[in-house]
Amino acid sequence: MKFSEMLRAKADASWQASFDHPFVTGIADGSLPLDSFKYYMLNDSYYLSVFAKVQALGAAKAADLYTASRMAAHAQGTYEAELSLHENFSKRLGITPEDHAAFEPAPTAYAYTTHLLAVGYTGTLGEIIAALLPCYWLYAEIGHRLQGMKPEVEIYQEWINAYGGEWFDTLVKEQIDRLDALAELASPAERLRMEQHFLISSQYELSFWGMAYSLEKWQAPVMEVL
Ligand SMILES: Cc1ncc(CO)c(N)n1
Q1: Which SUPFAM superfamilies does the UniProt entry name for this protein (predicted)?
Q2: What is the CATH number that goes with domain 3-213?
Q3: Which of 6, 95, 99, 200: CA 20 to 30 A from 42?
Q4: What is the pLDDT of residue 70?
Q5: Cut 0.80: pTM above it
């Protein structure tokens, strides 16, 4: 069994909980309140801005120029997705520059990105890809599962199309193959860290839906701190 398949099997319970989460099923059937989707978009913009940095940290840690260039290309791809999906959606959802200015990441978005940054700065490229992979792979699986659903809310349909398409599949497959190649070279201790990072990111993906669905907030405002 490939290393990636072993990780996917171990994460299955949290992935199934993501598939069944009311945020995800609410996108599929159009019942998700727009306020939750708006809150998701704001937090996801923040999330993706850190995600791109961690991809770039992966580029810095690559053993060869080709891999460095691919990780950098993925960081660039995140930037472009961020621009096209989020700027377009922000306008249509009525998210204003003031909303962005007043925005502070919710506790779960902050914790998840802090986890990614910790692995980005302390980990090997294998560890970094293990931490980033649930973000790619889970969304691709959700995109596929939701293909063919026709929510009345146009933005939800576009969200499904973005993650269910071939463009995203190719990126995900590339990183799965890279993870398997790096796992072959890794020591047992590094492979264990890769597994931990993957499972923790999978848990945070699940928490991220709950965060948006419940409009999760800090107990006290932290605007001055973050
Ligand atoms: C939280 C989260 N995970 C994964 C993706 C997919 O890139 C995303 N946009 N946001």
Answers
A1: Heme oxygenase-like
A2: 1.20.910.10
A3: 200
A4: 98
A5: yes
